[in-house]
């Protein structure tokens, strides 16, 4: 019978290496148990990580779409709020103008004109609105403030209408100035000529959330409010009849503005609906892919726990053997 014997040093190295190996196993298994993820991913997937990589890539895409979706929704809702403020003021002023059934007088005209000036100021402020440091209505150039102030607008209009004394001529002069490329678009509008690029919010969906302060609906509204504001300008010296006629003309123009603003809000609401629907679909897809990803990378908790108990038992047994071995000596053997 052949007997194999090992020297003390060899035995010591064997026991130490075995101890280190078991401690590493326990550390790995403990991490798997706490994180729920396997440390032997390649082995579990049979060496093919292609499917897992595809799942991870799609999850990353959906996360980027989530960010874009959130930004687009914030931009659209902020636009909607600012347009709603302008629209509400238009409705109020229109109602106040047509509620005046008495004979024209300077006091009534002055009150309505001051009211129009307040609403014009608020309209310009709304169109100069920002969200997260980006202008809402400046088109592609979101760093630019789209409109100059009300003083710039009214100074230009007063100069334009000074030669005229009748309401139709003054109203027409204002309309011509707003329609002239060298008028409103040059003097007042400071944003980009182009709309913002479409935003990709899903794997196959994209939306354009972009309006400009010189869009026809906004220009129509500003034009109407500006005509009413001119009624109270001291430099024009208008008669009571002319003032009243200008306000009546403003009321008619504001009714058209209401229709255009409502249509704009409706179009924007459709975009908001698409953003919300896409966000819901993206969320469902992300949840589904997350479940698949977890299934691929997770460790079996029962198997991991069993292996951990086994490794701990082996380490304890090894410590016992090591302790007994260290107590052996020739004197004890001979005694």
UniProtKB/TrEMBL annotation:
Hydrolase as UniProt keyword: no
Subcellular location: Bacterial flagellum
Pfam families in UniProt: Flagellin_C
Residue span(s) of domain Flagellin C-terminal: 260-334
SUPFAM superfamilies on file: Phase 1 flagellin (SSF64518)
Coiled-coil region list: none
InterPro entries: Flagellin (IPR001492), Flagellin_C (IPR046358)
Keyword entries, A-Z: Bacterial flagellum, Cell projection, Cilium, Flagellum
This protein's record includes keyword Metal-binding: no
Range of residues in the leader sequence: none
Family indicated by similarity: Belongs to the bacterial flagellin family.
Entry protein name: Flagellin
Organism: Phaeobacter piscinae
């Amino acid at each position: 019978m052949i007997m194999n014997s090992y020297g003390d040093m060899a035995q010591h190295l064997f026991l130490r290496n075995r101890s280190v190996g078991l401690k590493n196993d326990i550390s790995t298994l403990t991490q798997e148990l706490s994180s729920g993820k396997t440390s032997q991913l390649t082995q579990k997937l049979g060496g093919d990580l292609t499917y897992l990589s595809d799942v991870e890539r799609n999850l990353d895409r959906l996360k980027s779409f989530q960010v874009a979706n959130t930004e687009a929704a914030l931009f659209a809702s902020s636009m909607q709020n600012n347009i709603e403020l302008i629209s509400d003021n238009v409705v109020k002023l229109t109602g106040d103008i047509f509620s005046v059934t008495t004979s024209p007088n300077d006091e009534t005209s002055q009150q309505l004109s001051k009211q129009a000036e307040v609403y014009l100021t608020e309209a310009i402020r709304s169109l100069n609105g920002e969200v997260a440091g980006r202008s809402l209505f400046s088109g592609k150039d979101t760093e630019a403030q789209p409109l100059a102030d009300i003083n710039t607008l009214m100074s230009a209009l007063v100069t334009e209408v000074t030669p005229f004394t009748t309401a139709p001529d003054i109203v027409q002069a204002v309309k011509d100035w707003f329609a002239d490329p060298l008028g409103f678009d040059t003097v007042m509008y400071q944003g980009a000529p182009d709309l913002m690029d479409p935003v990709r919010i899903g794997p196959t969906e994209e939306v354009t959330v972009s309006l400009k302060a010189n869009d026809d609906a906004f220009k129509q509204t500003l034009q109407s409010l500006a005509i009413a504001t001119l009624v109270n300008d001291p430099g024009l010296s208008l008669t009571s009849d002319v003032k009243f006629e200008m306000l009546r003309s403003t009321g008619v123009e504001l009714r058209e503005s209401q229709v255009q603003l409502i249509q704009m809000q409706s179009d924007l609401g459709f975009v908001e609906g698409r953003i919300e629907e896409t966000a819901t679909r993206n969320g469902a897809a992300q949840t589904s892919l997350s479940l698949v990803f977890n299934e691929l990378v997770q460790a079996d908790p029962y198997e991991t726990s069993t292996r951990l108990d086994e490794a701990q038992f082996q380490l304890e047994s090894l410590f016992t053997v090591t302790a007994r071995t260290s107590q052996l000596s020739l004197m004890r053997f001979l005694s």
